[in-house]
Amino acid sequence: MTVSRMPYMIGVPESHRGWTFVTNHARVLAAIADDPNVRIRDIAAHCRLTERAVQRIISDLEQDGYLSHTRDGRTNTYRIEAGKVLRHPAEAGLTVASLLSLLVQDEAHRAGGTEARSSQPAEAPHVG
Predict the structure, then answer these.
(1) Where is the HTH marR-type domain (predicted)?
(2) 3-state class of 98 per DSSP?
């Protein structure tokens, strides 16, 4: 499933104030895992963020080694470091792959998908 085909959550307001369970960084990372060639514009639309916010998040993820990209013409191809451990001490030992697996399962559930999902993200071939 590509980001452009991802369903939006029905009944969710366009903007949200306050805290959420899933961070914007996790949402952006999951969108990239879904399509490593996704455009910033499409990530922003899917995550309901501004393009500038997505650019800042991608920069954060790259600076901390969770994400890298190569440029081919006008297209960026992102690579996620799936083996990298999450930042918070309470999540010691949990990897990016674990987080993405959880988010992919949730996306499939919300989309009404019935296909079996493995414990690894479907994106494993392009995830480092």
Answers:
(1) 24-74
(2) helix
Tokens in use for 17?
A: 């104030």
Whole-number Å distance between alpha carbons of 71 and 121: 24
Q: What would the pLDDT profile of 4-49 be if each residue is shown by its tens digit?
A: 444 444 333 456 678 888 999 999 999 999 999 999 999 999 999 9
In a domain, 6, yes or no: no
Query: Residue 122, SS3?
Result: coil
pTM of the model: 0.72
3-state SS assignment for residue 77: strand
Instruction: Let me know if 1 is exposed, middle or buried by CB neighbors in 10 A (0-12, 13-18, 19+).
Output: middle
Is-contact 6 46, C-beta < 8 A? yes
Provide the domain limits for residue 113. 22-126
Residue 10 belongs to some domain of the structure: no
Q: What CATH number did the domain enclosing 45 receive?
A: 1.10.10.10
Provide the domain count of the chain: 1
Q: Is 94 helix (H, G, I), strand (E, B) or coil?
A: coil
- Classify residue 109: in a domain, yes or no: yes
